[in-house]
Amino acid sequence: MSASFADVALPLPVDSPYTYRVPEALAGRAVPGARVAVPLRRGELVGIVLARHDRAPEAVARDLLDAPDAAPILTDDLLRCARWMARYYGAPLGLAVRAMLPGPFWSRARAARPLRTDAAVRRERVVALTGEPPTLLERERIFARAARQRALYETLEALGGRAPLRHLERQLGFAGALAHALAARGLARLVDEEASRDPFAGLAGAAPPAVPTPAQEAAVAAIAGAAPGHGVLLEGVTGSGKTLVYLEAVRACLARGEGAIVLVPEIALTPQTVQRFRGAFGDQVAVLHSGLSDGERADAWRLLARGERRVAVGARSAVFAPVAPLGLVVLDEEHEASYKNGEAPRYHAREVARVRARLTGARLVLGSATPSLDSAALVGDRLAHVRLPARIGDRPLPPVELVDLRRVPTVREAGPVPWSVPLDAAVGAALAAGDQVLLLLNRRGFASFLQCGGCGAVAECPHCSVALTVHATPAGLRCHHCGHARPRPEACTACGQPMQAMRGVGTQQLEQWVAARFPHARLARMDLDTTSGKWGHDRILGAVARGEADILLGTQMIAKGLDFPRVTLVGVVDADAALHLPDFRAAERTFQLIAQVAGRAGRGERGGRVLVQTRSPAHHALVHAARHDAPGFRAEELALRRSPPYPPAVALVNLVASAADELAASRRAAEVADWCAGFAARAGLALAVLGPAPCPLARLKDRWRWHVLVRGAAADVGRLVRSAARRLAGGEAARVTIDRDPVSLL
């Protein structure tokens, strides 16, 4: 019998797989997509089988050590997707595969267990239907005097034929005796199974969704009518009911025997989304995001892989959920930059979702009130444009007033906080009426930086080329890029003068001012500092939803997807914070942020209003946001991006050279620029090479950064990226990272 070999991808920054011999005892398990334990040097690693063959490598192949799972952990479409990611983003194949699985699956081989990653195994009682489902006439006879038994039976059918008894009792209100009655009649059985860790198990499902409007029904029909592998860009104004469209599309998907993936951009939105989807689909919903423990994510993955859950809800990495057969992928708030991964492979979940849809024949839904220019440019390429032009109940969008801070009076007592008289009066009136208020300031901390009043020196991070942010709780100075922290100095470290001034305003200082100005109002602050705990987001949003907070203030977290009917006033304290950053997407991000947070107002019967404080009231991003005019903004911004050309007019890749020594980084960047120009000339590609130049954030985590931008047609940029991944990789002293389709150039 000829020897059999396996090509194995290991979670390492290498592009080529490793080849191992497959012992006969593992031949049935070590198949493509399966986890295997392999020897590597003097240790062991877990890898994924990419292919099986009988071609012996030149070097002597070592044996696989183990194949712990009964079935492959990665489906064929995920393996193909990993290869696409490696090619498209110029990333090592090993890192592309590593990105797809939760951390516990990569634990040391001998410790890898087929069912769990720890020794404690809880069990739970599950109710499962048995036999062929009775016909309608048979049900009339069987359940003639047992209406509640019939309700439970048909609920189990809707949940896929099985559900934990705990969920049926606690969430759905069925008595346990009903399940035992079904079992006694041979219609169901009660079995004890391994219980998975589910942090959302106690989360009550939201009320059943309302009946779709004609516009929503048309959107659902457009999704269902899309050809396999195609989809829709769902552009709906804030409050138009996009979530109900998602729910109905998932319902239709489940009815076809298929599963769905629903992505949200922020962990903060996950509990609210899970509530809505569990309210509709019960325990068919599994949750995947980085805020969960390793064990919780691993359990959710296994439930999806075994087909025991058919709907995956989560943030960016949930795009790799092992749902099969996959019928639908939804990206809610698709415009958000958080869908882009910040490390290799630097994938964008939107592009991965498009590829998975194409490979599996699933339908794709990209939903937003403010679609990205990149997504809008895809319309016509397997993507139809569907609109929800009005709010539910024909409620009007809130009027938006641009408050010109150059001209209107401000409240003197506010000090450095930009607090205009119109905003002050509006907050007071809303509180007096018993309404809730949202205040957006997209800058956390207490103050932006600390500056000496004598010599002008600014306290800077010793590891990054940025000023340290002043924090009040915990007190001190902190870098928001590398995490460096130190106490606030008693005197200037440059000249010794004790008088130091805080410049700029963050959410902590805004909170302090608002608490002093409105002492009877109950405040909640939502930013990275207050939501670092596992349930931080849910705790704050729950308090607002229950009416336990009168004012919610925070960073961009409060602008996305939240639905609070009692909010009648939204105040944007400083709309200029990101408007003038050295990034071609700055105007687009500002427009989206203002339009999205404005949409939080006026969702209830009382209506609402929005005040946007700015010193640039004539800027096109703010003018169009005040008009709720997304199409108008896109048209004007696209015109600006044609000259000089930036995406979506052209494709773009950012090649960043970094080193501990600035001269080494600049020299490496010059070599990269020369190589790119030479490659384009030799290949006859119409590519523009810009740079090298220092990155706007020139030093990050003790490494100096220079970058080279290359732009041109997508096919030409793709050829350069694939070659650059081979020619420019390696080198610890001066590394080169490849960021294709960057969402930020900072």
Structural account:
The protein is α/β, with parallel strands linked by helices. It has 6 domains: 5-112, 3-Layer(aba) Sandwich (GIY-YIG endonuclease), CATH 3.40.1440; 122-195; 214-388, P-loop containing nucleotide triphosphate hydrolases (Rossmann fold, 3-Layer(aba) Sandwich), CATH 3.40.50; 400-447 and 504-641, Rossmann fold; 449-502, no CATH class; 651-740, Alpha-Beta Plaits (2-Layer Sandwich), CATH 3.30.70. It is 29% helix and 22% strand. It contains 20 helices and 29 strands. The strands form 7 sheets. A 7-stranded parallel beta sheet has the order 10-11-9-12-13-8-14, with helices on both faces. Strands 15-25-24-16-23-22 form a 6-stranded parallel beta sheet, sandwiched between helices. A 4-stranded antiparallel beta sheet has the order 2-1-4-3. β18 (469-472) and β19 form a beta hairpin. α16 (586-598) packs antiparallel against α18 (630-640). The radius of gyration is 28 Å and the shape is globular. The model is unreliable at 109-121 (pLDDT under 50).
The helix/strand class is alpha/beta
Helix content: 25-40%
Largest sheet: 7 strands, parallel
CATH class of the largest domain: Alpha Beta
Distance between the terminal alpha carbons, to the nearest Å?
Answer: 58 Å
Radius of gyration: 28 Å
Low-confidence stretches: 109-121
* Total E-strand runs: 29
Roughly what is the average pLDDT, rounded to an integer? 87
Summarize the structure.
With 746 residues, this protein is an alpha/beta fold. It contains 20 helices and 29 strands.
Keywords:
alpha/beta; 746 residues; Rossmann fold; 29% helix; six-stranded parallel β-sheet
